[in-house]
């Protein structure tokens, strides 16, 4: 019981003292030598400068490769096709007119040769065979 009270009151007391400005400075904790802090900042600046130089060298190498192989640099990010319903990359739903146009017999070579019925029979046979095989396999259920 005593432990629970200490946990509850202790955390509230700590929050209250931090809000009053009694908290430690995040930049320089108590007991840390200012020279150590300055050395750490200097080391961080050197590291950032080193990484900046490396990135400049990489960009130079990238431009050389682009010029050698005639590659254009993409300035924009990836372009996504935003559908009518607001989803990115979503397939556009077909209108009833477009669906009706698909269902109408077309003037394709199969239609001109009169093989439409045979193709439809082959499609149904293939689909039924696929469904039968799918029924036997465990992942098709």
Structure notes:
This protein has 141 residues and is mainly alpha-helical. It is 62% helix and 0% strand. The protein contains five helices and no strands. The protein has helices at 2-19, 34-69, 96-103, 109-113, 116-136. It starts with a helix and ends in a 5-residue tail after the last helix. It is found in: Cytoplasm, Cytosol. Residues 1-88 are annotated as: Disordered.
Number of helical regions: 5
Query: How many beta-strand segments?
Result: 0
Distance between the termini: 56 Å
Shape: elongated
Structural class: mainly alpha
The low-confidence parts are: none
Provide the residue-averaged pLDDT.
77
Q: Which range best describes the helical content: under 10%, 10-25%, 25-40%, 40-55%, 55-70% or over 70%?
A: 55-70%
**Strand composition percent:** under 5%
Helix-strand sequence: HHHHH
Radius of gyration in whole Å, from Cα? 35 Å
Largest sheet: none
Main location: cytoplasm
Protein name: Putative complexin-1
Keywords: Coiled coil, Exocytosis, Neurotransmitter transport, Transport
Function: Positively regulates a late step in synaptic vesicle exocytosis.
Compact description:
Residues 38-77 have a biased composition (Basic and acidic residues). GO terms for molecular function: syntaxin binding. The chain is an all-alpha fold.
């Amino acid at each position: 019981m005593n432990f629970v009270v200490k946990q509850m009151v202790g955390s509230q007391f700590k929050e209250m003292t931090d809000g009053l400005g009694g908290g430690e400075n995040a930049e320089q904790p108590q007991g840390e030598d200012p020279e150590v802090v300055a050395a750490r900042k200097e080391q961080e600046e050197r590291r950032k400068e080193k990484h900046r130089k490396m990135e400049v060298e990489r960009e130079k190498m990238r431009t050389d490769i682009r010029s050698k192989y005639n590659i254009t640099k993409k300035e924009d990010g990836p372009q996504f096709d935003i559908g009518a319903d607001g989803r990115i990359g979503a397939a556009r739903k077909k209108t009833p007119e477009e669906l009706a146009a698909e269902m109408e017999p077309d003037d394709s070579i199969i239609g001109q040769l009169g093989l439409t019925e045979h193709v439809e029979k082959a499609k149904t046979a293939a689909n039924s065979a696929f469904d039968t095989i799918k029924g036997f396999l465990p992942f098709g259920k």
